Amino acid sequence: MSDLEVRQLRYFVAVAEELHFGRAADRLGMAQPPLSRAIRDLERHLGVRLLERTTRQVRLTPAGQVLLRDARTALDAVSAAERRARHAGREVPALRLALKADYDAGMLPEMLGAYEQEPVALPVELQLGGRGEQVAALRDGRADVALLPTPFDGRGLDVEPLLTEPRLVALPAADPLAARTELRVADLAGRMLPDGTAADGGEVPAGRPPRPLDLAQIFNLVEVGEMVWFLPESLARRHPRPAIAYRTVLDLGPSTLVVAWPRESRSAAVAAFVRVAQTVFARYSPKEPVL
């Protein structure tokens, strides 16, 4: 793909997402006439109409919808290739590990220690982020390997499961439901999860927009009754708090922690990390009961 073709795709994606040539031109930092010409040139090159233009609106044709989807994928791949090339050319190479804080069942120190003993091991750079950020980091070249809980969109990734464990609900110790040792999802009607959805899968309470929260914020909001939280058993075990009760939810599915990496990766360092992670988690054994 030539630089001109990449630029044309970037132009098209901007117009297709904005559905307005003026806004797209502003977004790209260019004048509108050359942007319009570039889109017409792209349509002539492809021999199809990508956009329906009227004096009032711009709409994608079916061909334009297909190109938008594939153009985004292509541009993401170009950006990822650039990042991976720069990373590979560093004087001091490293293994970039993406993960969500505390989603390692307490095994991260043991994993890193065992990995350091591998002949092909590289220094590990930890990239901590919120849930969902790990997959994006693998795809766009910011990370080489990731630890993350299911479910997620695994397209283009290779995945190996490490640990499957029950999920519990965290709720205020003063909540009447905390008097019970076992609950069902329906018992949590009217309560909200940290992502802004209803705990029982029902309607979201009005006036409660979701916001990004870190672990400490979630615990504090659970303690004061602002929300409940579904979390892996290992995470509950590592964070006992007097004001929070952890309870079994009989019809709540388990949590699976996996190690994931880009399918096209041929890195010996990544392969060694995956092997070590599997070996370490094969020895995993909970130390203390949660409930």
List the helices and strands and how they pair.
Elements: H1 3-18, H2 21-28, H3 32-46, E1 51-53, E2 58-60, H4 62-88, E3 95-99, H5 108-116, E4 124-128, H6 133-139, E5 145-149, E6 157-165, E7 167-172, E8 182-183, H7 215-223, E9 229-232, H8 233-238, E10 244-249, E11 255-262, H9 268-282
Parallel strand pairs: 3-4, 3-5, 8-10
Antiparallel strand pairs: 1-2, 5-11, 6-11, 7-9, 7-10
Measured distance between first and last alpha carbons: 58 Å
Shape: flat
Gyration radius, to the nearest Å? 24 Å
Name the structural class: alpha/beta
Continuous helix count: 9
- The CATH architecture classification of the largest domain is 3-Layer(aba) Sandwich
Q: Output the strand order for the largest sheet.
A: 4-3-5-11-6
Number of domains: 3
The pLDDT mean sits at: 89
Question: What is the string of helix and strand elements?
Answer: HHHEEHEHEHEEEEHEHEEH
How much helix, percentage-wise, in residues?
A: 25-40%
CATH topology of the largest domain: D-Maltodextrin-Binding Protein, domain 2
Instruction: Give the total of beta strands.
Output: 11
Main beta-sheet strand count, sense and barrel state: 5 strands, mixed
The CATH superfamily label of the largest domain reads Periplasmic binding protein-like II
Strand content: 15-25%
